[in-house]
Amino acid sequence: xxxxxxxxxxxxxxxxxxxxxxxxxxxxxxxxxxxxxxxxxxxxxxxxxxxxxxxxxxxxxxxxxxxxxxxxxxxxxxxxxxxxxxxxxxxxxxxxxxxxxxxxxxxxxxxxxxxxxxxxxxxxxxxxxxxxxxxxxxxxxxxxxxxxxxxxxxxxxxxxxxxxxxxxxxxxxxxxxxxxxxxxxxxxxxxxxxxxxxxxxxxxxxxxxxxxxxxxxxxxxxxxxxxxxxxxxxxxxxxxxxxxxxxxxxxxxxxxxxxxxxxxxxxxxxxxxxxxxxxxxxxxxxx
Length: 287
Fold this sequence. Notes:
The chain is an alpha/beta fold. It has 3 domains: about 90 residues, D-Maltodextrin-Binding Protein, domain 2 (3-Layer(aba) Sandwich), CATH 3.40.190; about 80 residues, 3-Layer(aba) Sandwich (D-Maltodextrin-Binding Protein, domain 2), CATH 3.40.190; about 90 residues, ACT domain (Alpha-Beta Plaits, 2-Layer Sandwich), CATH 3.30.70.260. Helix content is about 25%, strand content about 35%. The strands form 2 sheets. Strands 1, 2, 3, 4, 5, 11, 12, 13, 14 and 15 form a 10-stranded mixed sheet that branches. Strands 8-7-9-6-10 form a 5-stranded mixed sheet. Strand 13 and strand 14 form a beta hairpin. InterPro entries: ACT-like_dom_sf (IPR045865), ACT_dom (IPR002912), Chor_mutase/pphenate_deHydtase (IPR008242), Preph_deHydtase (IPR001086), Preph_deHydtase_CS (IPR018528). This is Prephenate dehydratase. Keywords: Amino-acid biosynthesis, Aromatic amino acid biosynthesis, Lyase, Phenylalanine biosynthesis. It comes from Brevibacillus brevis (strain 47 / JCM 6285 / NBRC 100599).
């Protein structure tokens, strides 16, 4: 039976693009879900076998809803990660006469897309109302369904192929080096392409009565010459000032180095939870 993969919908999101790249060659059907939490819950409840959600943007940082749901609400291993270049565009409904920027009264998009295009919107559409919705594709769909309104959406080039839209301006993101990391989650393994880069992500809980515990955690990796690419704190939601630490390790799980580091960390009273060991892919486009 064909397995299902959920992505942040509706059709035309960057997440759909990432999902199709990550699952290239797999016999999967794609199912759009209305939100990140719904995607993760759908996989957790086995409505679908896999899910793809955004994890971090190079400009705006971590997508907190993804990370917090993986920490607090579901136990789904990360199977793969993809860094996808992101270009934002200002989209308007097709009409007989082009809609000038000065006539646009409302701009809709996902909060991350709005933030990534902040400078353009402030300089070119200072009077327009900014409204956030669940995805760039939903914004594009809403604009396309109201061609009589002077509205615009910030979204992907793919939306122009799906909906009756046209470009008001292309590539309006504030920074050219704009990437988003997407993660593939699921309880079943997939036959993924070989990658030159592997990662392991762990969640560390520090003991409350051990001064310098974070230093000791980092030292366990340092003396083993294990490279860390990211360390981020997230609230445990148990007390003010109580945090988990999410750590990205630049290698896959092995039989010696990482188990040794984890054992050393646990020996000082920390808890270690593996969120996944997986291949990392960097996608390049010509656009």
